[in-house]
Amino acid sequence: MENVTPLGGDVYEIDTRLAGYAGITAGYLILGDRPCLVETGTSTSAPVVRDALASLGVGPGDLATVVVTHIHLDHAGGVGDISGMFPEAEIVVHEKGARHLADPSRLMSSARMVWGDRLDTLFGMLKPTDAARIRALGDTGAIDLGNGRQLTSHYSPGHAKHHVGLVDSLTGDLYVGDAAGVYIPDTGDVRPSTPPPDFDLDTALASIALFEALGPQRLLFSHYGPVDDVGSILARSAEELLIWVDLAKQAKGEQLDLDHAVAMVDQRTRDRYARPTPGDKAAEHIEMLSGTEPNLAGIMHWLDRPEA
Asked: Do residues 248 and 265 touch, judged by C-beta distance below 8 A?
């Protein structure tokens, strides 16, 4: 299938085609003795993912595990659908996100307030997953991939309090979720992903430092794709966070409202990121999902905390 890319080591990138567009959200299949899907994409992406797995020979009874780095809808919105399509799969998530997969009502209500009518088009509805099938991870944990291979999970909040990174013991791949930002493969840019309400600078920087200390051979971004130049990309991720926070502090000090602060940050970072090609719908959707306004709002929310 055109949305499936082999990455070596029995790892396959699956473009989950968020809202029908390519190059925005990726899931990954580890096709070992116990096949494991990392990230489901959205609810509306579930049929795309099912068909991709089928093309790789993974049928309804074959998938052993579904693991998500965190429960934001672009990463885990399809968990309920996928769990129904693959009834033998165990669903693995950090303990701070587990209850929201079993009962998504609160999560969906919050998402509706943020996205309004766009929620249905972009994400669909996260369906409940049988709590008996959910395994909640602590700050560390392991997922059996068979034949001695495993994914180890490492708690990495900062982007979200229910976020984990995942390291493949065979390949050295590190599934970074959103904790290292958003990588744009066409330009090599990496941009912060700091939405409210969970962003915390010190915790985010500590998560990036943890990723570096784990010594991964490759980074696999959910947005978007594989990166071999691990050290420079993680360094750039931390650098961008510090720049954005410094700009947000300046805007706050000048008592700018969010719109003016966004304009200031866009102007100051214009030379740091390549401009999207006019009419590039995927780039437009990435900007909408992880653009200046929501990320700056997350930083401002953090700055409003007494301890920031």
From this structure: yes
C-alpha Rg value of the chain to the nearest Å? 18
Q: How far apart are CA 279 and CA 283, in angstroms?
A: 9
Which two structure tokens, joined as six digits, stand for 167? 């390291």
| CA-based torsion, 98, 146, 34, 170: positive or negative | positive
Stated length of the chain? 308
Backbone angles phi, psi at 125, to 5 degrees: -110, 130
How far, in Å, CA of 115 to CA of 11, rounded? 33
CB 184 within 8 A of CB 191: yes
Residue 49 backbone phi and psi in degrees, to 5 = -65, -45
Element (H, E) at 90: strand 90-94
- In the numeric block, which tokens belong to residue 220? 């696999």
Cβ-count burial 32-70 (b if 16+ within 10 Å, e if not): bebbbbbbbbbbbbbebbbebbeebebeeebbbbbbbbb
Is 162 strand, coil or helix?
coil
Contact 242/290 with Cβ under 8 angstroms?
no
Q: What is the pTM of this model?
A: 0.94
**Tens of pLDDT, residues 243-280:** 999 999 998 888 888 888 888 888 888 888 877 666 66
Residue where the block lists tokens 């390549």: 274
C-alpha to C-alpha distances, 232 to 72, 171, 173, nearest whole angstrom: 27, 20, 16
- Residue 132 is classified by DSSP as G
Judged against a pLDDT cut of 70, whether residue 285 lies above it is answered with no
208-243 pLDDT, tens digit per residue, is 999 999 999 999 999 999 999 999 999 999 999 999
Determine the straight-line distance between the first and last CA of the chain, rounded to whole angstroms: 47
Task: Give residue 288's pLDDT.
Answer: 65
